[in-house]
Amino acid sequence: MQNTRNLSFQNRITEFSLMGEFNFYTIFNKKRQQTPNFTPYIFAGIGILNHDPYVRYGGQRVRLNPLRLEYDEISNPTIYSTWNMLLPFGVGIKHNLKNSWAIGAEISYRLAFTDNLDNVSKYYATSIPQYLRVPNVEIKDGDVTRKFGIEDWEYLADPSGNLFTNAGLARGDGKTKDGYMTIGITLTYSILSTDCFSWRK
Question: Per DSSP, which regions of the chain are E strands?
């Protein structure tokens, strides 16, 4: 959430990644004496993500991408792609349970090759988009229910009510890539040799 601009969003992200992992100790080889039961590890990879930012507005779920809230006829006339590349990397620790099974915990950062995960990227809109298709939803406005209209587009573009005063001014933070962190519990099964690669065996 951007508190100073009163902008908010929610997003549902689907990710497909291919990652490599380096364990500092071998924990699956029980043929060796004094094999540790745990190991720290690092990982990194490459992947793609799909996202679709939205906001809860007037009791409805309103998708933000089709609204083109940072529209400019020359510099930003189109809808951005919801498919993007990403680079995941992180650290973790795992504990051997039995044979090839291990449980662990990890923290990671995902660097996304898009600046639109929060639907905030460049500048305030300079005009209402051409051929704007407003959502076909009815929103609650106090005790009244009405159709989503241009005034709602203007509010979502700039909740401060100063859209056309701010037109062309920075709406984002100037960075070109967004990112997000994840924390998770892992359950691992090794399908390779139990004498797997590590820094120390």
Answer: 13-25, 38-51, 54-57, 60-63, 83-98, 101-112, 138-141, 144-147, 179-189, 198-200
Give, in degrees to the nearest 5, the angle at Cα 35 between 34 and 38: 125
- Give pLDDT tens digits along the chain (201 positions): 444 567 889 999 999 999 999 989 887 765 555 667 889 999 999 999 999 999 999 999 999 999 999 999 999 999 999 999 999 999 999 998 877 889 999 999 999 999 999 999 999 999 999 889 899 999 998 899 999 999 999 999 999 999 989 999 999 887 889 999 999 999 988 776 555 555 555
Question: CA 162, 164, 170, 172: dihedral to nearest 10 degrees?
Answer: 70
Pick left, alpha or beta for residue 87 (phi over 0 → left; psi -120 to 50 → alpha; otherwise beta). beta
Q: Token pair of 108, please?
A: 């990671």
Helix (H) or strand (E) holding 124: none
Q: Which 8-state DSSP code applies to residue 36?
A: -
